[in-house]
Amino acid sequence: SWASFVVHATAFLRPNDGRLALVLPAELLHTDYAEPVRRYLRERFSSLVIVAFDRLVFEGAQVDAVLLLASNDDSRGLRVIRLLDERSLDSVDLEVAPTYQALEHWEEEARVAKSRTIQSARWSSSLDVEASAVYDALLVSGRVVRLGELAEVDIGLVSGANSYFILSRESARAHDLPKRVLRAVVERPSDLAGIRVRRSEEKSLFLPPESVGAHDRATHEYLTIGVGLGVPQRYKPRTRRFWHRVPLPHLIGDAFLPYMAHRAPRLILNPGRRIVSTNLLHSVAFREEAPDARAMVAAALSSATALSGEIEGRSYGGGVLKLETKEAERLAVPALTGEQVDQLVAMFDRLDQFVRRGRTLEASALVDETLGFDHGRLVAATEVFRQRRLGRKSPSR
User: Can you spell out the DSSP letters for 128-154?
Assistant: First the structure.
């Protein structure tokens, strides 16, 4: 509703001397649905000032708020000011706020991109001009490509009752369920410690046929348990023709990408493309022209992808990094040569062990060294955005 309100509010202003000042959610800076609003504001006003806060400013609300100040008082374009909290507003000097020029790079990239659907001129990158310049230089260097140029990203399945439909292997054995009514599934990112799904990390999705004969005693009994638990009356199951038939995603990918992350995006190899996932993990299917899936999963450990995640993703009051499917397709991943593909495949198991042992930064440094990225510079730029995301706290009064 806020997006429509912003556009509607401008109708009450005179074209050349009207001013707009609004308190808005930070979705203005980064969401896809706000892109037309950002474009409209740039066309309507020659001066745009965004005031962003490193801490939450509304007590009891997990809303990341910004101030939007729009006018035609000058022609300085977009300026962004970061403050600790709202109590710092008294010290704001709009005249010294730096103008953010990098949007032109984004717009030019959008014009030459193969797929306009995976491009977006986001204002979230303008929260720090120097760190954003590192990312802008990376985008035009030819060293990275958008994940969407190499893969399709889709959401996982929605069972409507995970506690019933998703069983541990031990529970499936305890109910004596036959293999023909089970499908390998991964449920949560926290269940996956490395960059490859191990069998010990898989669970079982209960997926019986539409009609279950009386001779299939174990399956029939488990369906009866579901009825007793009221599963058929839950929202998703009751909308299906057969309540127990969980629709599988149309895309079974080569890798998974957690929908939410604490520190950085992580691709996780789906061995043999035989496992499905819940909607807590996106499915990533590489195209035929893409490099070996193992190399792509390893390459995504690069600090270049971590920096991209901070800018292309979104975060809310709790600080978690979220990537919707289109945002995931905008992630910058290293563009690999044949030699680099072979090197990453050869070190895949070693990188998996690093990540499993919590040594992700070491894994990232090794990948950056192999690919020739400036690890220190990219990490420093990433931390600028990550620390703001993770460091926001509820307002203290």
Answer: SHHHHHHHHHHHTTTSEEEHHHHEEEE
Q: Count the helix, strand and coil residues of the chain and give each as a percent rounded to the nearest 5.
A: 45, 20, 40
Q: Which amino acid is at 57?
A: V
Token pair for 65? 């708020």
In this predicted model, what pLDDT tens digit does every residue of 203-239 receive, in sequence order?
999 999 988 876 789 999 999 999 999 999 999 999 9
Tell me the C-alpha distance between 186 and 204, whole Å: 8
CA atoms of 136 and 50, how far apart (whole Å): 20
Secondary element (H or E) of residue 226: helix 217-228
Cβ atoms of residues 154 and 250 within 8 Å = yes
Quote the pTM value.
0.82
DSSP state of 87: G
Measured CA distances, 356 to 268, 270, 284, 352 (Å): 12, 16, 21, 6
* pLDDT tens figures, 68-98: 999 998 888 888 888 888 888 887 776 666 5
